[in-house]
Every structure is written in C-alpha cells, then in structure tokens.
Amino acid sequence: MLHAISVKPMKFIFTAISLILLFSPAKGQLKTMGKAHVHAPVCYASDEVHRVYVEPPTRIRLKSAQTTAATINVTYIGFSDEAKTAFAYAVDIWEGLINSPVTINILARWTPLESGVLGSCAPTDYLENFDGAPLKNYYYPIALAEKLAGKELNNSYEYEISAQFNSSNESWYFGTDGNTPSTKYDFVSVVLHEIAHGLGFTGLCYESTSGNQTVGGYGWIEDHPGIFDDYMINFDGDKLVDQTKFPNFSTTLFDEFESGYLIFKNDETKSQTNNSYPRLYAPLTYDEGSSLYHLNESTYFPGNPSSLMTPSIGRGEAIHNPGPVTLAIFDEMGWVYTTIIHDELPDTEDTTTPLTVEAQVISDNGLDSTSVKVVYTYSDFTTPDTLQLNYQASTSLFTNQIPINGASEIRYYLIANDVDGNLFALPTQAPDTYFNVLIGVDQTPPTLTHEPVVLQMESDQTLTITAQAEDNIGVANVKMEYAINDQDFQTVTLDEADDAYQKTITLPTITDGDSIRYRLIATDTSSQALTTILPSNGYFVVTIEGFYDAVTNYSNNFDTPDRDFISTSFYTATEEGFDNASLNSPHPYLAPEKSDQNFEYTSILKHPIILQENGEMSFNEVVLVEPGATGTSYSDDDFWDYVIVEGSLDGSTNWLPIIDGYDSRANSSWLTTYNSSTDGDNSTATGTKDLYVARTISLTGNGNFSAGQTVYLRFRLFSDPFAYGWGWSIDDLVIQDPGTAVATIEISPGEVIFFPNPAKDQLNIQGSLKEAPGDILLSIYNNTGQKLLQRKIEGSTANFNAELDISNWQSGIYLVNLQFENGQLISRKIVRE
Length: 833
What we know:
This protein is mostly beta strands and 833 residues long. The chain is 8% helix and 38% strand. It has a seven-stranded mixed β-sheet, with helices on one face. β35 (495-497) and β36 form a beta hairpin. α1 packs across α3 (187-199). It starts with 11 loop residues before the first strand and ends with a strand. This is Putative secreted protein (Por secretion system target). InterPro entries: MetalloPept_cat_dom_sf, Secre_tail.
C-alpha cells in the first residue's frame, strides 16, 4: 500500500516513500528490498490553490543544440486518450531537455491507488562501476547509466522507469495549456515531476534502525551511495557520504537528515542559480516520503521557475518546466556529458602490424574535435606517448594507429575535451585503470560458460544448447559432443548468434527414462588453437521425462524413492529437523537481485488425475516464504513470494490455481518462525517437523476444473526480487484416496506455537486450529522426568493462549506436553536461559 509518513494539510504533497517499484506485464509491486531503498515519489492531493503557470522551455538540449536528443518510449496500461495526450506532452518536454543515445523506456499504469494518492514513479534499477561510470562505487539510475555508457545496460525491452497514476482521482486536468482550474490537479506537472525522479532526481539514503537507535544509511545491492547523494552537503560544508564524519548506518548521519539545512553543492549548479547552491528539503523531523530528494519549498515557492521539484503542489498550479535548478543538478550528475565509446582492442599474435584504434565521441556540451587522443605506453604511464585521433566522416569515428615492435604489452586509454575544456577519459578512472593489449604467441584459452540443460520432456524431439564463449584473440568455433543413452557420440558445431553460440538438434524417438550426455569444446583462433572443455571432466546429463497413465487416486509419503515428479528444483530428501523424507523446494530458495525478474520452482506430478465429484487433495506442509504486505491476498500487487497448487489440462500450458497462492501468513507458527531469524530482508529460520500443518484442498471447488476432467497437477513456489526464506516442504500427499494408509495430522504440530525458545521470564503457548479442541491438559517436566506443573487450558474456541511465568525456574531443558481431548499429544523441548 502506498502511504506517506506525514501529509501537510491543504497541500498536494510529493513524497518519496522508501520502496522499489517492481512491474511486470502480469504483476506490479511496491517493495523494499534488503539493502536497496529507492525513493518512489508519491503524490497526494489537497485543497490548497495556487493559480500559477510556468511555461515549458524552448526545445533545446541541456547545453547544446549540436547533439541528438533523447527518445522516451512509454508503454501505457489503462490510460484514456486524453491522459495519454497529456502524458506524451510531458514526455515531449523531457525529450527536448536531455540527451541519450539509448532509448528510455517507461512503463506507466493507470490504476486505482490509495485515496488521495495521485501517482508514483522511480528508476527500475541502479548500476555501479559499469563501462563509462564517471565515479567508482556510486550507483547511477539505470537511464542515466545507459546514457553515460552509450549503450543498453539491460535488455532493450526492459523498462528504465516505472510509474503509476491514480485512475480513481476525479480532479485531473489533462489540458496542456497551463490553464488549470482551481479545482483540478495539473496532470502534465505531475508527470514532469515524477519523470524527473525516474531520471535521477533521487538517491539511496533512508532511515533505518540499529538495535533501539534510529540511524541513517544508504545502499543498493552494496552499501554504496547514489550519485545524487555525493553532492548533498550540510551547513558546515561536509559531505553526507563522507564516512570519516558520518559513518554509514549511524545516528550521526541520521542527524544530518534532520538538520534543517542541506544543499546540492557544485559550482556548476551555483553558477546557474544566482550564485547560490540549490537548497534541498530537509525538515527537522525526517520524512521518509519527502526529505532529501526535493528542493526546499520555502526557497522555491509556487510559481518560481524551479518550483516543479519541491515536495508540494496545489490545485490550479501548472509547472511545465523543470527549471534552471533541476537542469543544473541534472547537468552535474551526468545528463550533460562527453561519452567516449570504444571497443577494447583484442590481443594479437601479429607482432608487426600497427593497432588501429577507433572511437565514437558524443558530447552534449559540444566537442573539441582536436582533443580526441589515445594515450599509450609499453610499460607504465610515467612517460606515455600520445596520438591524436582523426575524425573520419565516412564512419563518424575518430581513428589512428599505435605502432608496435615485436612481442610486448601495450596499455592505453582515450581522452577528449568538450568546448569548455572539461576533460573526459575512457576508462573513466584513467590512468589508474586502462586497456591493455598482449602482443605475441597466445597462451590464454577461451572462456566458456553454459547453463546446462538437465531435463527434457519426451514430447519434445529437439534439444537446444546455448553457450557463451569469449577469447582475448578470437573464438574459432564451439562444438558439442553428445550421445543418447549408450549410443556413439556425435559432434556438431554451434552457430554464432549475437553474443552467444547455439545449436538445435533433432533427436530420434526418446522416452521417459532416457538420457543424453554432452559436453562443449571452444577453440580459439590463435596459432596454438587453445581449447576449453565444459565440463572439464565427464559430461552434462539431460534426463528425459514423460507422463504416466492417468489415475483416479494417488498417494505418496516420499519415504521410497520414485520418479513420480518432474522437477529441476524440487527434490525428495530427509531434511535436518525432520524424521522422514518429504518433497522439498530448495532450502533456502533464492530470489533474483533485479527488480524485473522472478524465480519459479515447480514440481509436476507425472500421473494426471481423473477428477471425481467432490475430489480432494491433502498433504502436510511447512511454508516459510516471504510474507506479503499486511492485509494483502493472492494477486494483490504487494503479495510477494508465495506457494500454490495448480492444474493444467495438457501438462504444459494454461496452469490455473487449484487453490489461491499463500505465504507464511497462512499459519501463525510459520510467520513467527519466518520472522524469528533474519539477515536484512531474508529469513534465515529453518523448517522442522514441529511446523507441519495439514492442508485439504478441493480439486473442483474454485470452478477452474470439474469432475470428469483429466488434470495435471503441480506445486509451484514463486520468488520475487530481493528477499527469500527457507522454502516449502510437502509430505503425506493424498489425492482422491480417503482410504489410504498415509496418515494425516488431526491437530498439526505447526498449529501450536511455543515462544520464545529459549525463554527467560515467560513462556507463551498459542494455538490457531481449524476448530475448537476442547479442554487441553498442560504438563511440564524437568530433565529428570519430575512433573513440575499440570493444569487445564480452555479450548472452547479454535484459538487459545497460555502464558506461563517461568522466572523462578532453574536454567535447563524442560518438556512441555499438550494432551488434547482427541487423545493427540504435542510435545516441545523448551530451554530456560
């Protein structure tokens, strides 16, 4: 749920909640990940009126009309035509103000949001230390990173910016003339403001806790600041990211967040803003929504040319220009830059032919074409040589040749100046970092990587193998040797395609239980024809799987090995903390570290089931997967990791829920355990047999399938980005077979919680059952078997609670028994500290 920590009355507040926007075609999410906190602006509506209009800027680049503008593509989901027109108008303004050779993709969703929320937007990712990064160990928003690198740094179809706007708001003004009525909110202004955040008017600082202290911190995947954060200065002139003064995750850093005075310090921004540094919004009470990453509202009042990026906007206020302050900040962060694009020269065995150096140079500020040079040396850069690169109009490249003389190593880097004399280099940290070329007989074999194919369905009569191969001189070919079962090995050459090598082979008839062995061999173009074999020993093995005959009932306690399930991730084993074997997801399962990815772990039953009238499936399970946001349910945007049982009529497509997905919140003992041990946002708690809970599912109850149909069943664990837990364990599976010998648990151990354990002063016993258990007899024994306590717990409802004062107990191990009216006994060993 989107929310602001505080909302000022009579204002339309832009706040930046600490969360990450995760969008995919099927599911959009707002989420905080481990160390990564991205400020996603949230816009709130109020009734304050400011009838002012700041006109859009003239169609110019930030600094020069000599370079290409940006291309911003927007994928609209749910927008009306008039909303699209206004949105496109705002996009058109930004396209005229920034430059990038890489298309910026925005995903915009027109969707109901929380009442009073108008919209939200954020970068989809941050990158550090990429090719062309101006500063080391600083995170750049993905759109800015791609601009600086001069190339795509994610897939071309992926989004750099994610945004959503409230379709339930009835007070939008979609006009583009700036004549916004006093009862309306100007949609163009909101879109301009939010896109600015998506382009980089944001950072990675956030409020956190350490013990009982509130601390300030920053970080993404690593504990490194964002590029915006590098310019934040306090009243004394100290950088907030100077860890000698303000250690990361410290109270001293958080004090600066609440200092009441922060500026964006850089001489370029000062010269563009009446000789004063831009004042940032840093109220005395920290607001995770609006602090730090807005301009100070009392400095840039409504109607000020730079008021777009203040934290509030009123009805009737139309600001169609980012303003000089914001543009100067963008200029300094890198939106005005000179990018040198160059492919590092490969090694060579040719000891006489000069090396041809080519580079493309793109300068937003205008390029001094006589300044493009290559600096090179045969040893170190104490006394390097320099060659000017000459522009070739036919290729739009700067080029020249480095002479070579026999076997050697050449180190080099490229430099260029813009028209103001600012120096740029590639690599950006040159000469500390540089390119190098080895000249002489090659001794380096190629690198070869490959994701092995481990499973193939018998219905698929083709096998596709993909590999990546690189070499310092060049790759001659990549070949595959393979054999089906015990047949002779065959050899095929993979085809080169883009950055990969691939081959699809047609297989003879294969059936369940067959196997394919294969290995890959990469050979380079050197005189030595050096090779790399993968795997280095033996072969990869592809297991052929097929479906069995349909049955009306099925049961499995997983104690006897079988091949009844198809999976590359689930497995059958007796895990630590369990008495016998069960079907398991990976422990722990993993989560991707990119906002536009997810992992799915699946296990498919090879026996399709002929559904009976009122047919049911039951099993015992432990579910320790990341819980969604409080109050959410399956298919909600912030319902994060989950497990689910699904069915399909063909076993490969159109999987539909048998039961809606659920997470650790489905049982209080699971949730308590999941949260009992954490590392960042990840749970390190492990499952045990004591957490087993019985589940019974109607196979036809939700209407997706009906009696008489033959349905394939699968278990699936969905893992979204950034947080994970122990996973899923399934035992005593029974499908449409109430007479089976496999026992189910009447009262599951996992339905009763004993906490804390170890305990010191008080022990709590809580039950959350499917029905009222009746009176429960509680007995406690010490480690010698002496009964210390016996009493009844009232069980007139499905939920019960007992609190025991153990402050006078001696330290040691105690046995706690719960005897239920149905004769079932549940026991726990409790440690008294």
